[in-house]
Amino acid sequence: MKATLERTDLLKSLTHVHRVVERRNTIPILSNVLLRAEGGALQLKATDLDLEIVETVPAMVEMSGATTVPAHMIYDIVRKLPDGSQVVLETTSDNATLEIRAGRSRFSLQMLPETDFPDLTAGEFSHGFSLTAAEFRKLIDTTQFAISTEETRYYLNGIYMHSVDGAKGQRFRAVATDGHRLAQAEVPAPNGSMGMPGVIVPRKTVGEIQKLLETPDANVQIELSETKIRITTGAVVLTSKLIDGTFPDYGRVIPQGNDKEMRVDRDEFKEAVDRVSTISSERGRAVKISLSEGRMVLAVNNPDSGSATEELAVEYESTPLEIGFNSRYLLDIANQLTSDTALFRLADSGSPTLIQDNTIDDCLFVLMPMRV
């Protein structure tokens, strides 16, 4: 194999593919990236057996062939090569090492045969549709923070994606929850998505997809089966297994009868929560919100370090209410709101609160209260 290509192109692709490779592997081949040169392109492939990413970059191929080399090692080498250089990748005649040449730099990497490299067989995909990168990114960015990290509840370790037929017509929806908070976002359902199986996309896959959605108006092709998802954007194809589990009936968690409405300037609220939570303990993080007509008082009391309060003007006309929340969870939600005013729908101090943008209703958040 012998191929020559721009360092910039090679680095961009290695940046995408090397992230999939775990740094500690008991199976040596999984530490490697597969390089295949043919036609006028170099194909790079990496996998962890649950997630596979393939990217194709233009190259001048003098000799077709394929091999595998350590992914993090070749990434570090190419990252440190001079900007604008031409990189030559060539296997030695005894097929033992891959030589990397750029300017006066020479590297030689140990290879493993491409025949050992596993293939994440995709199988048949029952549904296919496309979204813009901006739409797909909105679904992920809005819900990702609520993914559970508790491995015992593995069915919450991802984003649940499905299509719904509701009051606003057919919608494509993403939901994530960790039991303490829930985030939901939706966009108009694209052609081909109705009737798709509800799927849970794993946390690691979500993170990798997010990094590929760099161009907002690019088209993203999404293919689904009951066990796998395949994302194609530009020259990159990402295939992943889905979480094999049943996502809970999240609709039962979303409060319907919360009759106390409170509106507050989003930025003022966010900054005030951030300020008073400076006092909170790493373990507690509780902030108490006291509501009365036209007024909110945020209070944090930490027996070990002191206390803090801050008052804000709000739109609130219901009966006085005191309720406690985890300050970090409040900030996570506030960071996802896009309108200038945040809308809180409350019931009482022991019931979940619904939080939305005041003017946009395609996202909603549910937050469980804390005892304070």
Describe this structure in words.
The protein is 17% helix and 44% strand. The protein contains six helices and 26 strands. It is α+β, with helices and mostly antiparallel strands. It has helices at 7-18, 71-80, 133-143, 203-212, 266-276, 327-336, and strands spanning 2-6, 32-38, 41-47, 51-58, 60-63, 65-70, 86-91, 97-102, 105-110, 127-132, 158-166, 169-177, 181-188, 199-202, 219-224, 228-233, 236-241, 260-265, 286-292, 295-302, 306-313, 315-316, 321-326, 341-346, 353-357, 363-367.
Blueprint (SSEs and pairs):
Elements: E1 2-6, H1 7-18, E2 32-38, E3 41-47, E4 51-58, E5 60-63, E6 65-70, H2 71-80, E7 86-91, E8 97-102, E9 105-110, E10 127-132, H3 133-143, E11 158-166, E12 169-177, E13 181-188, E14 199-202, H4 203-212, E15 219-224, E16 228-233, E17 236-241, E18 260-265, H5 266-276, E19 286-292, E20 295-302, E21 306-313, E22 315-316, E23 321-326, H6 327-336, E24 341-346, E25 353-357, E26 363-367
Antiparallel strand pairs: 1-5, 1-7, 2-3, 2-6, 3-4, 4-17, 7-8, 8-9, 10-15, 11-12, 11-14, 12-13, 13-26, 15-16, 16-17, 18-22, 18-24, 19-20, 19-23, 20-21, 24-25, 25-26
Helix pairs in contact: 1-2, 5-6
Pfam families: DNA_pol3_beta, DNA_pol3_beta_2, DNA_pol3_beta_3
Protein name: Beta sliding clamp
Organism: Roseibium suaedae
